[in-house]
């Protein structure tokens, strides 16, 4: 049996493509590996999250807030957050049941909330931000998903 010249060429091209793909994969794994947060990811037992994380609003410095929120089918706890002259708000979120998605409509605050993990996202609040913002769940989480919303109220 003879192997045609064209077949050899194509076999060479395929082999080269496999090498390129594997190299790209290895490179991506290396880059992503560098970006994965290390041991500072906080974990929490979903059954004990409500007691351990103490949901609520804390002003840690003038204008700097830390807001701890729990996602539970189908609401956020607390579901009404009032902030006076906020500059920076660090949200800490977890879920006690399934995956939820936390989003404040009209802002860049958008993070997935997994049971067992504490997600963190910081909102640098624009000076002109004022009034009532809708916070929603943007990850389908069951029959009551559309009822899972609340409000962030910014007072100036
Ligand atoms: Cu929670 Cu959708």
TrEMBL record:
Keywords: Copper, Membrane, Metal-binding, Transmembrane, Transmembrane helix. The keyword Magnesium does not apply. GO terms for cellular component: membrane. The chain crosses the membrane at residues 9-32. It is found in: Cell envelope. CDD domains: ba3_CcO_II_C (cd13913). The keyword Transmembrane applies. It comes from Pyrobaculum calidifontis (strain DSM 21063 / JCM 11548 / VA1). This is Cytochrome c oxidase, subunit II. Pfam families: COX2. Residues 62-156 form the Cytochrome oxidase subunit II copper A binding domain. One of its GO terms (molecular function) is copper ion binding. Gene3D superfamilies: Cupredoxins - blue copper proteins (2.60.40.420). InterPro entries: Ba3_CcO_II_C, CcO_II-like_C, Copper_CuA, Cupredoxin, NosZ/Cyto_c_oxidase_sub2. PANTHER family: CYTOCHROME C OXIDASE SUBUNIT II, NITROUS-OXIDE REDUCTASE.
């Amino acid at each position: 049996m003879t192997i045609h010249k064209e077949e050899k060429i194509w076999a060479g091209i395929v082999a080269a493509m496999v090498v390129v793909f594997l190299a790209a994969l290895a490179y991506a794994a290396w880059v992503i590996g560098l970006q994965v947060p290390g041991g500072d990811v906080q974990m929490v037992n979903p059954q004990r999250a409500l007691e351990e994380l103490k949901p609520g609003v804390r002003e840690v410095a003038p204008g700097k807030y830390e807001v701890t929120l729990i996602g539970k089918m189908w609401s956020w706890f607390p579901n009404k957050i009032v902030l006076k002259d906020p500059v920076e708000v660090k949200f800490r979120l977890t879920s006690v049941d399934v995956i939820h998605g936390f989003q404040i409509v009209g802002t860049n605050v958008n993070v997935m909330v997994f049971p067992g993990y504490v997600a963190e996202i910081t909102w640098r609040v624009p000076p002109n931000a004022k009034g009532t913002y809708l916070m929603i769940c943007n990850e389908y989480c069951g029959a009551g998903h559309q009822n899972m919303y609340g409000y962030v109220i910014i007072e100036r």
